[in-house]
Structures are given as C-alpha cells and as structure tokens.
Design brief:
The chain is mainly alpha-helical. It has helices at 24-33, 49-55, 65-80, 85-95, 99-113, 118-123, 131-143, 146-203, 209-244, 246-256, 260-283, 288-298, 302-316, 321-326, 333-345, 348-404; strands spanning 2-8, 14-20, 37-43.
C-alpha cells in the first residue's frame, strides 16, 4: 500500500512524500529509521480520472525481462567491484533508461537506507522480482556471498531470456502466416465470392456440393458479418478470461502435455528449467525443499507445478529427491539416475548443471523439429484451403462449358 507522510528533518525542515509499506505502523517505523520526526502518515487515496488510468499502468513504461537481465548483470559487476548495495542501487537508479524501473530501484535504495535488508526490499516488488530471484538474494545475504548470488542470477537470467526468445521466434513466423491467410480468406468470402455467386445464379445450373458449401459460408460472412465479427471478438475475450482462471489454465496445460509433438517440447522446457533452477539455487546454498518449491513457482505449466509440489512433500517427509522424482511418470529415467548419482557422490549441483546443458541442447533440437513440422503442415493446410476454394469456383465453370458444348 502507498502512504503519504508529512515529517520534519533533523534541521526542522518540513518534508512530505509517499512511501510504500504493507501497513501504517511499518511505514512509521521506516520513516523513523531515516531520522524523521513524524507529523502525519495516512493511506493515500485511490486516484481518480486520468490519474487512476495512469495508476493502472496504462501509461507507465513496462519493465521487461530484458531490463531485469541487464540490471542483474550490472548489479553483479558492481558487487564484484566491491560497491555497496545502497550505492549500487542509487547508481543504477540514476542511469536506467526505463523510468518505471528507475522509480522502483530508487525505492529499493530508500528501503535499504532505512534499514531493510536487500532481499526484503526486493520481495516488496513481486511483479518485478520473482520468488526465485528474492530467495537467491536471501541465500547470498545469509552466506555472505551476495556478489556470487548475483553472478549466478545474471547467468541464469541470461539463459532464461535466451530460451524465451527462441520460443517466441519459433512461433512468430507461423502466427504471421496464419493470421495473414485468415484475413485474405475473410476478404475473399466477403467481397469476391458473392460476385461469383451472382454469376452462378444467372446460369441456373446445379452447383457441386463444394461450391454450395463455399457459397453458404460466404453468405454468412455477408449477411451476418456485422454481428458475427463482434461475436467472435467477445467469444475470444471470454475465452481469454477463462484461460486466466485456475480451472482454465489447468485444463489448457493438461492439453499441452498431451498433444503428440508439443508434449515433448513442453517436457524439455520443464526439465531444462528444473535442472537449471535447482542447480543455481543449490549452488547458492538454498535448502533443497525450498529450492524445489521455488522451482515450482518458476515453471509455467500447472501440471508440472503439481508434480513438483508432490516431490517437495515427499522430500520434506524424508524421501530422497531421486526417489520422489522416480515416482513421477513425466520425469525420464535418465534424469532420475543422474540425480541419484549426484546424491550418492555429493555433487548434485554439478550433476544438475550438466543436465541443464544437456536439456538445453535437447530443447534446441525440439524447437527446430517443431519449426520443421509447422512449415510443411502450414503449406499442406493452406494448399488444401486454396484448392477447395479454387475447385468451388472452377467446377461450375467447367460444368457450364460442358453444357454449352
């Protein structure tokens, strides 16, 4: 929550500003830690009108994953150079090009200056810093190796960003082609086919079934286009809203893990993130149960979240990590065996690092395979659609030519 305060500095100068805190009492505590004499602290009223729209973030510059990646690398470099956390955040807050990120980093620096630990300051901004990020920082604070934690974070964020970009790149071309084709077909059914229908009506001959179907679809576009298009937009919006609910997300995730080609891709994304995240956290000294729980938060698919929740419960009750994984059919035996070797030799972090590299290569191959399958599938699908449309137009013309002869 945001609180507005009025206070006096040490020299008696009046100052007022806003402070973010989970309660009024904590806000007062933070201000007193700064050496301020409190005059008034009250929760800030909800903004109205244009300010309310700005508060929703519509006009705010978004903080992208790329911003977090660059920040992580910069902060790791500064810590390596022996710069204090407060000075590092002040420096990065003054030089960052993203104004929204600048404001957040400045608030983090203010929290640190008031006595809040770095991990707690980051935890107050869950939309920017994930539980994984916060716990890595917390582990670095506890071990006294904060610079190493940020180096691990910077490397991990680089790898995660690269993975997301590969997936995004793999989907961009097919999405563009399909959307362009759909727009062209809508234009054909709305403007071109109706003119052909008028010509066929003048002929008065019996039309082939494929032509009747195409003309019927075109008739729907022409007569009900003003209703059907908004209806489709509304239906798409409701589907999107449903997909964001817990039930919708779960059902869609289950479908993703059952589609023949995609299920292999999603499994390898999960295995790569599991090995990479667990390696990063265990290397930084995070306890294994906590590492599993945080890894579950990083995984995007609810099916695999549930899997890790079950594994976490078993490990917490005393079952070995490898045995808990063995009881999950979605986890391949090679990963179970390698984890077991890591447990036996005490080199689990090293084993997970090798597994992460292995599954990264496997994931690259899977993405290439999916792209290789999507392109010919699109060609066949588009070819069939165009072929049906051409047949619907040409068959009546051939029939008319035969009738004339």
């Amino acid at each position: 929550m945001l609180y507005h305060y009025v206070a006096l500095n040490g020299d008696g100068t009046k100052t007022e500003a806003d402070i973010e805190s989970d309660s009024r009492e904590n806000a007062i505590f933070l201000l007193q830690k700064k050496g301020l004499t409190i005059v008034d602290v009250r929760e800030k009223e909800a903004p109205k009108g244009f300010d309310a729209i700005s508060g929703l973030g519509i006009f705010k510059q978004k903080i992208k994953l790329k911003d977090i990646v660059i920040f992580s690398r910069q902060i790791a470099t500064l810590f390596e150079a022996g710069v204090s956390a407060l000075k590092a955040f002040r420096l990065l807050g003054s030089e960052n090009e993203n104004k929204t990120f600048v404001a957040e980093l400045t608030q983090v620096a203010d929290d640190i200056e008031s006595g809040v630990s770095l991990s707690d300051a980051l935890e107050r901004r869950p939309l920017i810093f994930s539980p994984f990020y916060v716990n890595m920082v917390k582990a670095g604070e506890e071990s006294g190796k904060l610079n190493e934690s940020f180096l691990y974070l910077a490397d991990y964020m680089d790898r995660d960003y690269e993975l997301r970009q590969k997936i995004k790149k793999a989907l961009t071309y097919p999405t563009f082609v399909v959307c362009t084709f759909v727009l062209i077909m809508i234009a054909m059914f709305t403007f071109v086919i109706p003119k052909m229908a008028a010509m066929f009506a003048e002929q008065g001959t019996e039309l082939p079934m494929v032509t009747k179907i195409v003309l019927a679809i075109s008739d729907v576009f022409v007569k009900y286009g003003m209703v059907s298009f908004p209806a489709m937009v509304v239906a798409g919006w409701f589907f999107y809203r449903w997909s964001q609910t817990e039930e919708g997300t779960r059902k869609i995730d289950v479908i993703k893990t059952k589609i023949p080609v995609l299920k292999v891709l999603y499994q390898r994304i999960f295995l790569q993130r599991l090995a990479d995240t667990m390696n990063t956290m265990l290397t930084s000294g995070v306890p294994i149960v906590q590492a599993i729980d945080i890894t579950a938060a990083v995984v995007d698919n609810t099916v695999y979240k549930d899997l890790l929740a079950r594994v976490s419960g078993k490990v917490q009750s005393g079952v070995a990590f490898s045995k808990a994984l063995y009881e999950e059919p979605l986890v391949p035996n090679i990963l179970v065996q390698m984890v077991h070797i890591g447990e036996e030799t005490g080199e689990l972090g090293y084993i997970l690092k090798n597994l992460a590299n292995f599954y990264r290569r496997e994931l690259d191959t899977s993405i290439d395979n999916v792209i290789g399958l999507i392109e010919p599938a699109m060609i066949v699908g588009l070819g069939l659609a165009v072929g049906i449309l051409v047949a619907a137009v040409l068959l009546p013309m051939y029939a008319l030519g035969d009738a004339i002869n």
